[in-house]
Amino acid sequence: MIVGLTGGIGSGKSTVAKMFQRLGVPVYDSDAAAKQLMVDSKPVREAVMELFGTEAYSGEKLNRTYIARYVFEDTEMLQKLNAIVHPAVRAHFIDWARQQDNPYVIQETALIFENNAQTLYDATILVTAPQDIRIQRVMDRDVVQKKTVLSRIANQLPDIEKVDKADYVINNIDLDVVEKKVSQIHSELLAKTNPR
Amino acid sequence: MFKKIFGGLNQRKVKVFSVFLLCSTLAWTISQLSESYESRASFELNFVNFPDTLLLDNTEKKYIGAKLRTSGFQFLSFGINTKKLQVDLSDVAYNNEKYYLDESVLKPQFEQQFSNNVSLIELERDKLFVDLYQVVLKEIPIKRNINLNLSPNHILKGKLSLNPKVAMIKGPSNELDQINSIETVTLTLNELTDDFSETIDLIQPEFIKHSQMLTNVVTVSGEVERFSEKEFSLPIKVVNEPKGYNIQLFSKTVTLVCKASVVALKDINIDDFSVIVDGSKISNDRKSLNLEVQQKPKDIYSVRLLETKVEYVLQKL
Questions:
Q1: B210-225 pLDDT per residue, tens
Q2: Which of B118, B158, B163, B220 is disulfide-compatible with B70, CB 3.0–4.6 A?
Q3: B-chain residues within 8 Å CB-CB of A170?
Q4: How many other C-beta atoms are found inside a 10 Å radius of the C-beta of residue B135?
């Protein structure tokens, strides 16, 4: 069983993912995998260079600042980059998922509903938090200005549009509450994978 | 001819004679080496305990000769391995722009380093001149190169602690004037969830030729704690209500999100906060009043109101 874990920037996907990991669920971090594939995968690397030019890489390293400057301000470029990276990540994830020995695995990814990709999952979990809180979290975490966070949020669907599409919704504010919710979802997912 | 001589050596009598000759030579050598002699030996000098304001100018090896009385064996060992003698510079004297140690200072130092069967008769010089130069001690700020990646929902409690806070460098003032900071090697800590304390090396600036870093490592430590957020729905209090009027708010409550350590959050409750609107700020061109957090607990990271304004109506009593 494949479960998609998603949420807007600053919603606390990673916090929730860690809670599932502590319960023994294998979690695939799509963001980390995408960054890795952009460096390690030759076809992805070549396609990224074709899109952004050779400045997209400084030696063997990905020039994140250079790419970020493009994609956060130019939706078309972001879509083109996603068209390169997402299929590669999906293929990598499927390989990874096949190697896991657990009733279900989780793919943590920022964009599921934005890409109409919910059909690829057996269940989806949406992590939410009030937008003001999300903005503040990202400003604290990444030491960036509010307008930068807002431009990133603009590339994602508002929570209100995603809530109806998700199978489970976790409002990530109070960790105690979130932990209980995660535990409840975990039990439900296990029950689904092993119906009596 | 040679064939005849070599042939003769193989004879038994010659062999026995050679063995006895070797044994007697050895016995004689041992007995001679066991005797006491007066002779000279040379020693390499190793300078220690530099005064704070002095450094060695010349790093070439220095030697001193000394007349000693000891066994032949001891002289033999001095001949094979040059012994190093430590010279304590804490009592170095200065005269005529030269630093030196008198024989009266050196002799006791050396005697302490020899074994009991060695007596130091005299040194080859009555003064040992040392190439020292005046230096200053300077405290240089440490520039840390630390990448901390905290695990989600973890935060650094307070600031990173550096111990020591500054690096001590000893050297000529013209050289030290060029050093504004000393950098640490890069330390990267990932997925931090607990308090940490790491010792990291300081990088000696390349241009330092005559200075000596007295601080070579620094300990970086920090406290990490798990944080969470908690929502509180608070009633909005009105202060400074205009006389004869009642301020009707829409709405009467506001949601406040408090960020604090998981431990601290357990003890925080709604009574620890108060949110107000100030009636004195009412004006004809304003339809709403700003919400202000008037009271909040001490040990928290932040509070945030999900609404910053509230609409109102002024009612005459």
A1: 888 999 999 999 999 9
A2: B118
A3: none
A4: 22
